[in-house]
């Protein structure tokens, strides 16, 4: 039931209106996810996976059709059992609807393929962030020691090189660029000699 509602339900609704959008060359889709998808609540792994799939499923555009996803929390029958009444009141749909209204309006013609978090009267656009990372030569063996020597670089978001990929193409740019990262003949020869030395030492 969870998959039918959270994932297939999103797909079926979008599919139903798509021919209409194609015919009129115009349309708006705003689908909902959950903040659980954003913060990755591992205790609710299935629900998180389905919510994430809902985001990926609508991350596309066609003609003048704009697709957005909102990730919100709400006062529901489930949360009423654990949340105080004051919090339930603050999480009413009344504080979500205005954001949805603007996202679907003709005035907003630029926002597409993006994620917004809306909770308790607070709203914000959310994005992915990736550290600048580092590339290693693709024609020589990569050892754990190589990773250790670059670990601070691989995990730093504060060196001014962090990126915010918004598509698969952007996500692959640095990876594809590293395919040309080749070690020199001298460096390769040194590595080969080291490996041979280690193998000989192991036999002795």
From TrEMBL:
Keywords: Oxidoreductase
InterPro entries membership: NAD(P)-bd_dom_sf, Peroxisomal_Beta-Oxidation
GO molecular function: oxidoreductase activity
Keyword DNA damage among UniProt keywords: no
Keyword flag Transport: no
PANTHER family recorded: DEHYDROGENASES, SHORT CHAIN, SCP2 DOMAIN-CONTAINING PROTEIN
Membership in a protein family: Belongs to the short-chain dehydrogenases/reductases (SDR) family.
Protein name as it appears in the record: Uncharacterized protein
Lineage: Eukaryota, Fungi, Dikarya, Basidiomycota, Agaricomycotina
């Amino acid at each position: 039931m969870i998959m039918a509602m959270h994932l297939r339900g999103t797909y079926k609704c979008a599919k139903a209106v798509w021919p209409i959008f194609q015919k009129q060359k115009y349309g708006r889709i705003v689908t909902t996810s959950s903040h659980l998808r954003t913060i990755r609540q591992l205790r609710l792994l299935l629900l998180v996976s389905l919510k994430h799939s809902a985001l990926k499923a609508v991350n596309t555009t066609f003609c003048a059709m704009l697709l957005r996803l909102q990730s919100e929390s709400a006062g529901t029958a489930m949360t009423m059992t654990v949340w105080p009444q004051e919090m339930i009141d603050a999480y009413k749909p009344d504080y979500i609807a205005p954001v949805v209204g603007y996202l679907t309006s003709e005035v907003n013609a630029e926002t597409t393929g993006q994620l917004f978090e809306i909770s308790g009267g607070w709203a914000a656009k959310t994005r992915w962030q990736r550290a600048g990372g580092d590339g290693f030569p693709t024609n020589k063996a990569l050892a754990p020691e190589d990773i250790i020597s670059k670990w601070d670089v691989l995990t730093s978001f504060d060196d001014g090189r962090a990126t915010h990929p918004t598509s698969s193409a952007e996500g692959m740019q640095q990876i594809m660029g590293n395919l040309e990262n080749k070690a020199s003949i001298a460096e390769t020869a040194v590595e080969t000699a080291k490996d041979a030395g280690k193998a000989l030492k192991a036999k002795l």
